[in-house]
Design a protein that fits this description.
mainly alpha; Serine Threonine Protein Phosphatase 5, Tetratricopeptide repeat; 15 helices; 0% strand
């Protein structure tokens, strides 16, 4: 709906007058991000530049997110550097922008820069940096970050963090270690964790662990057809 609404400049101008700059620009950028519409996103960016410095950081965060989801890390970095203020959302969005676009090492460097500025990471920040570790194969860094969540910041890992660690180990072919990690979880593992392990088993052809992972998924969600597909592929591999 929003993608159609903000497709034409006249509609955007009317919305600016009616809803105000912050809401309209952020909503338009979110629509462009969800549609991966770089051309339209750049038009909104141009309007944001014309409006000058009197813009809430939320708009610039939405701009970062738009460029990230359109695969334009350099553009996102340029916006990030031009911002007067950086919230934890700004830092986290920039970290994820690098992580999802093949720049895992840069994602970790940005995280280190954030810490040097005494910005406290939140649980979403850790999801992003752990995901970056998985993308880059940085196992030692991943373990250290996972440990630092509770040790340094008092953040208890939730299922998303455990799934990131399973993904990290699984992508490195350490499927058995990933399963043992799941077994040691302090709460009942959910579908996300077991499906992540199942995906790793499919890649590396580990039928034994794959069967166990699939059983757990089906016990939790017996109507999930993708599990049967992945399991059958494991058996055929």
């Amino acid at each position: 709906m929003y993608g159609q609404k903000f497709k034409h400049g006249r509609d955007l101008q009317v919305s600016l007058q009616f809803f105000g700059y912050r809401f309209t620009l952020a909503t338009a950028l979110n629509a462009c991000a969800n549609l991966a519409s770089l051309e339209e996103g750049k038009k909104v960016h141009g309007l944001r530049i014309k409006l000058g410095t009197d813009i809430d950081v939320c708009v610039d965060n939405a701009l970062l997110d738009m460029y990230a989801k359109c695969g334009c890390v350099d553009n996102a970095w340029t916006v990030f550097q031009s911002m007067n203020d950086h919230s934890i959302v700004s830092w986290t969005t920039m970290i994820m922008a690098c992580a999802i676009n093949g720049q895992a090492r840069k994602a970790l460097k940005i995280y280190d820069e954030m810490r040097l500025k005494d910005i406290q990471p939140n649980y979403i920040t850790f999801i992003c940096v752990l995901y970056a570790c998985g993308q880059g194969g940085f196992i030692d860094e991943g373990w250290e970050l996972f440990a630092s969540m509770t040790r340094d910041y008092g953040i208890l890992p939730v299922e998303d963090h455990y799934a990131c660690m399973v993904n990290l180990l699984g992508r490195a072919g350490r499927v058995k270690e990933a399963e043992e990690f799941i077994v040691r979880m302090p709460f009942q593992p959910g579908v996300l964790v077991w499906k992540t392990l199942l995906g790793a088993c499919h890649v590396y052809g580990d039928m034994e662990i794959g069967k166990r992972a699939a059983e757990h998924v089906l016990n939790l969600d017996g109507k999930d057809p993708s599990t049967y597909v992945v399991l059958s592929n494991c058996l055929l591999a």
